[in-house]
């Protein structure tokens, strides 16, 4: 990653913001041409004055987007072929596909007359019924190229919950400075009621008394927002329970509410590294702009390569000029060399649809929403975006992970009356079922202990099978809670897991006030592992300064950990921060663990 991202952690903006990576991306409106097509003048003609057809990028063989010129009265053989094709697109989109009707395979927007479009949508509905899916018309656009009669193209969302899942799942981490309105926004989205301007909406999200008293989140909490097959919001507004929301939803958004205050930065980093969010929502207050930890949270998302979109909140408190100034400030930061993002301002429902598709296809596109949790202004645009936003990992990656041995990260530990010990976390690979025999560790002496999975719950609903990438809680019966800690893993006994107290990583020092030397102690974050380590050696160098790269050997101070080569690493100590990846681990046997830790 570009070492200039260090400016987002340690320093202020470089004057002028560096060279721009491109202007603010505007969503394509009705009848407009794609940025991927030929250059077109405002009157729709090229340099020679000839009419130029609007185009989309050519259809890709992979992915969940399908172009169809028309689907009028297909033969039975053709219909079966179309159904098979829909199954493939749904598989590629992990339960969601987008059909563009009236578009040729090369991306040319031809359009259809009203009667042909009606017949094509009827055929598409029959195809969806055949595979057990639902369809929702996202938008229609008129195309007036080279035709006297009106012609339209229609964009349709096809959604089907996979047979082996209860619902589609998307995890969104919520970042932003303290008092930017993160918990309030989540309260409005999940409770279905607007805020009163004094924080009433956020009260249901707080977990501790001091959070209610101060109004500041200090822990990690989870909130759910559902969408049914027709794209309608399913939340707690009708006095539903979490189980009822899960049962009524075909798509679930799990929000991971993280702390905004700098004092709780370690908790925020743990949430980003451990809970494996699909994307992040960065909240910025319109009246304060980029302040406090906003720049630092933005740097964390970039460092960990978590795609993010931005929500500018509290627009009801500001004049329009203040909101515009905050948006321009964000655009300047996003275009800096350390970010290389293309901001995309969302101002209409059509923009929200385009933003969701562009965000999934290009890691550089960053949608920006401006809304209010009090007046509800533009809140529906964010809901449209979340409803349409597809899974950001493809089906092939998911299948490859499921073929591997079971590995579950332990992030939370509870004791539940009449249930026993319960652990929460994410299944990194493989499949986990009720009754599976696993081993958990490493303990302080480097051992792995046998246990049995008694039951599984996802979003407070019973679940018999857990698949790679899914988060859940596992009941372990009477297993002694004192033997568990955050950062452990539960794996298949066949894996023969290796542990280490010494490892090497290739790092970039993002920020350090002086020089980074041997003997310096930092808190290391690798996945769900969070522990203090000491720098034992810096290869080929005596010291490091801000922006420099090196291979560094670390030693954990307290107990051995389970690490894998290639895992992303982030370390911090005060204002010192760095990122990198694990390049080598010095595996040790269980009996050697305490000796290697220096005990």
TrEMBL record:
Residues 24-61 are annotated as: Disordered. One of its GO terms (molecular function) is GTP binding. This is GTP-binding protein 2. Keywords: GTP-binding, Nucleotide-binding. Residues 167-395 form the Tr-type G domain. It comes from Loxodonta africana (African elephant). Transmembrane segments: none annotated. The keyword Cytoplasm does not apply. It holds the Pfam family GTP_EFTU. InterPro entries: EF-Tu_GTPase, GTPBP1-like, P-loop_NTPase, T_Tr_GTP-bd_dom, Transl_B-barrel_sf, Transl_elong_EF1A/Init_IF2_C. Belongs to the TRAFAC class translation factor GTPase superfamily. Classic translation factor GTPase family. EF-Tu/EF-1A subfamily. Residues 27-38 have a biased composition (Low complexity). It comes from the Eukaryota. The keyword RNA-binding does not apply.
